[in-house]
Amino acid sequence: GQQLNQSPQSMFIQEGEDVSMNCTSSSIFNTWLWYKQEPGEGPVLLIALYKAGELTSNGRLTAQFGITRKDSFLNISASIPSDVGIYFCAGHPNAGGTSYGKLTFGQGTILTVHP
Amino acid sequence: ETGVTQTPRHLVMGMTNKKSLKCEQHLGHNAMYWYKQSAKKPLELMFVYNFKEQTENNSVPSRFSPECPNSSHLFLHLHTLQPEDSALYLCASSLGGTSGGADTQYFGPGTRLTVL
To answer: How far off is chain B from A110, nearest CA to CA, in Å?
Structure first.
């Protein structure tokens, strides 16, 4: 089946630093989503990308849909303690048929921010 | 608050028990999902309901039985579970559609299940 490789698995950074994480796929995805999950909660959508090459921002967060459609990147600028959590990428091939809603998730990046 | 609620938030059950997880969405969506989240593993899609029709059963053992009586409610009936079924079970909803694409999915807070 389809797999997403997300890296790094974890990051320990100082407050104020910038953060980058990425996901790569062995096959093409036509939708990329980035979620954040905090302890005791479900994932919350941060950014959705629907077009190859698209660059979208949400506050201090910026995500890009790779030109090859096999990767995506998430950057967080000037990190703050509340950025702590697990960040997941998710992709969908938009392949038609009965594939509606069948997202593939990455393994997650655990982010720790030291004040 | 994402508009998707799940009850109970925590559940401890024995292997011979029967229990049910409940999910309710207040977003007017037509697609609902069950996911399993285990430690150090990606989220695993279990079931998809699109306009109340089950469109995906991702090789889930029959000891997990979903039910979707209407577009706002989704249940996961559990019986004779195994300790390895202990995990966080997440419900999600999205607009729903027939295009084979993927709308944004909104997740509930999950039910933390422990099987003894």
So the answer is: 10
> A–B: how many Cβ contacts below 8 A?
82
- pLDDT of B24-63, one tens digit each? 999 999 999 999 999 878 899 999 998 888 888 888 999 9
**Are the beta carbons of A43 and B94 separated by less than 8 Å?**
no
Answer for the pair A13, A87: CB distance below 8 angstroms, yes or no: no
For residue B103, give the DSSP letter: P
Strand A61-65 with A71-76, pairing = antiparallel
Q: What are phi and psi of B85, to 5 degrees?
A: -85, -5
**Mean pLDDT along residues B6-24:** 95
What pLDDT does residue A103 have?
87
Question: Which residues in chain A are closer than 8 Å to B50, comparing Cβ atoms?
Answer: 100-101
Q: Which of B49, B44, B84, B50 is nearest to B65 (CA)?
A: B49
CB nearest to B55's CB, from A100, A105, A106: A100
Beta carbons within 10 angstroms of residue B21's beta carbon: 22
